[in-house]
């Protein structure tokens, strides 16, 4: 079974690539239950590629494990469910696929049935997913009844005719369902508690499972973008998760939990970009983060070692280094804005997106400048030589995703700036300064607070190494 399902998955990837480059929508897909659009094609390619890697990786990683056929059957079934979810055009089919996705993922989290901790993690995740499914069912039920249609396309076309209370209620329910699936604060504990899952499952989560919150917001963008207050709420919850997830990652000592905290942060950034009105940015973030984080999880075992932390030596800061860092960050933001068509003069939510790129480049340049193993001269010329082409590549991915999603309703809906936007930028700048200065290490109270608030469910923790050997 592992061999057959691995080959089938790679066959699905080849088919997905064909659909990705095939311009017309296939007529056989119909329009009532299934619809193949740009988002479907893109997510199919991402999902099947990561799934193929995980299937192939698991043939060695899971060799000799109990219930191997059951593991592969669920892994392949989850791949098919995600494909169905992204192609579903019927509201009921979408909810059923969403529910099945959570159910099978929770089952994989508890794959090692002999561990009480794995069963506890599976049960907690399943309850979280079922709660999200109930919220999603409520939102789509409201929209379907009010719009008088049970297709996603029909609901989106009728958004302008829906009553304001229905749009508000449906939007809030959709956002909550997306937050649960993408492990945003305060629904993040299911992800941090899922480390009992086999490592390939943790890698596969980023192929459309944890990222599904972004897919949900992209699919129903006309609904959640109808009211500016809802968009501001999305920006707020995404920003909070991004900040807390990044802070939690800094205090973790467990490799997989560190990656899980990073995922909370990155999913927050993804949702934040959607709240700014830029679905292509959110999907591009989903794509790049999915590939990178899946790789990190699959490679997690190679970085585990017994070691004692030693204080690292950082090069002394210099005026020239600081100047090169600042110029590179500003140039990176300007390059991104120019290549993606974001105006540098018209102030809107695109300005905030560009400022976040500047902050990200600033953090990356500071990290590169502080590499003690590089000479001072190398550090200075390497900063722009490495990071500016990387920004150009990111902008190319952004534009490519935008081209694929050009038929998606309200793919880009920039909004006017508000005090919340400026406040969020200020908080991110302050957080960057705190990270750069190492405040999380200097303050014992802050360190302990971050560590305590990032703990998984206690019943999911394995305390004895011998428990690993038993299964």
Determine Rg (CA atoms, Å): 22 Å
What's the pLDDT, averaged over the residues? 85
Morphology:
globular
Count of extended strands:
0
Order of SSEs: HHHHHHHHHHHHHHHHHHHHH
Kindly name the structural category.
Answer: mainly alpha
N- to C-terminal distance: 21 Å
H/I helix tally: 21
What percent of the residues sit in helical stretches (DSSP H or I)? over 70%
Low-confidence stretches: none
**Percent in strands:** under 5%
**How many domains make up the coordinates?**
2
Main sheet record: none
Looking at this protein, list some descriptive labels:
21 helices, mainly alpha, 2 domains, 471 residues, 71% helix
Question: What's the topology here?
Answer:
Elements: H1 2-21, H2 38-61, H3 68-87, H4 91-109, H5 116-147, H6 152-157, H7 164-181, H8 189-192, H9 199-204, H10 212-219, H11 221-224, H12 228-250, H13 255-275, H14 279-298, H15 319-340, H16 349-369, H17 376-404, H18 419-437, H19 439-442, H20 444-453, H21 466-469
Helix pairs in contact: 1-2, 1-3, 2-3, 2-14, 3-4, 4-5, 5-7, 7-10, 10-13, 10-14, 12-13, 12-18, 13-14, 14-17, 15-16, 15-17, 16-17, 16-18
Describe, in short, the structure shown.
With 471 residues, the protein is mainly alpha-helical.
């Amino acid at each position: 079974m592992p061999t057959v399902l691995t080959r089938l998955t790679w066959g699905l990837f080849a088919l997905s690539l064909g659909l990705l480059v095939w311009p017309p929508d296939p007529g056989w897909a119909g329009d009532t239950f299934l619809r193949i659009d740009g988002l479907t094609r893109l997510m199919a390619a991402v999902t099947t590629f990561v799934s193929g890697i995980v299937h192939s990786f698991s043939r060695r990683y899971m060799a000799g494990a109990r219930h191997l056929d059951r593991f592969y059957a669920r892994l392949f079934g989850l791949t098919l469910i995600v494909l169905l979810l992204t192609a579903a055009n019927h509201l009921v089919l979408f909810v059923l696929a969403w529910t099945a996705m959570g159910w099978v993922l929770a089952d994989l989290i508890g794959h090692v049935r002999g561990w009480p901790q794995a069963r506890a993690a599976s049960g907690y995740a399943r309850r979280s997913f079922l709660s999200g499914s109930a919220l999603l069912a409520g939102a789509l039920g409201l929209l379907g009844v009010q719009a008088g249609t049970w297709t996603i396309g029909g609901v989106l076309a009728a958004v302008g005719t829906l009553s304001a209370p229905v749009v508000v209620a449906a939007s809030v329910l959709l956002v909550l369902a997306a937050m649960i699936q993408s492990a945003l604060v305060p629904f993040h504990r299911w992800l941090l508690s899922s480390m009992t899952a086999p490592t390939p499952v943790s890698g596969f989560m980023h192929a459309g499972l944890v990222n599904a919150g972004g897919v949900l917001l992209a699919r129903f963008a006309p609904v959640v973008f109808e009211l500016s207050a809802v968009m501001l709420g999305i920006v707020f919850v995404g920003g909070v998760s991004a900040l807390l997830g990044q802070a939690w990652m800094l205090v973790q000592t467990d490799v997989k939990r560190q990656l899980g905290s990073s995922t909370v942060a990155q999913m927050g950034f993804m949702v934040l970009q959607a709240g700014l009105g830029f679905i292509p940015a959110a999907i591009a973030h989903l794509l790049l983060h999915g590939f990178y984080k899946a790789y990190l999880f699959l490679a997690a075992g190679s970085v585990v070692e017994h070691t004692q932390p030693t204080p690292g030596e950082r090069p002394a800061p210099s005026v020239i280094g600081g100047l090169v860092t600042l110029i590179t960050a500003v140039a990176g933001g300007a390059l991104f804005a120019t290549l993606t068509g974001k105006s540098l003069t018209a102030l809107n939510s695109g300005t905030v997106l560009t400022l976040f790129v500047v902050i990200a480049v600033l953090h990356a340049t500071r990290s590169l400048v502080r590499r003690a193993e590089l000479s001072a001269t190398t550090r200075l010329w390497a900063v722009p030589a490495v990071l500016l082409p990387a920004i150009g590549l990111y902008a190319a991915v952004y534009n490519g995703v935008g081209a694929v999603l050009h038929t998606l309703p309200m793919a880009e809906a920039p909004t006017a700036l508000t005090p919340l936007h400026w406040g969020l930028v200020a908080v991110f700048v302050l957080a960057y300064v705190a990270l750069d200065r190492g405040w999380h290490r200097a303050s014992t109270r802050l360190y302990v607070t971050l560590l305590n608030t990032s703990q998984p469910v206690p019943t999911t923790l394995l305390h004895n190494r011998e428990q690993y050997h038993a299964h």
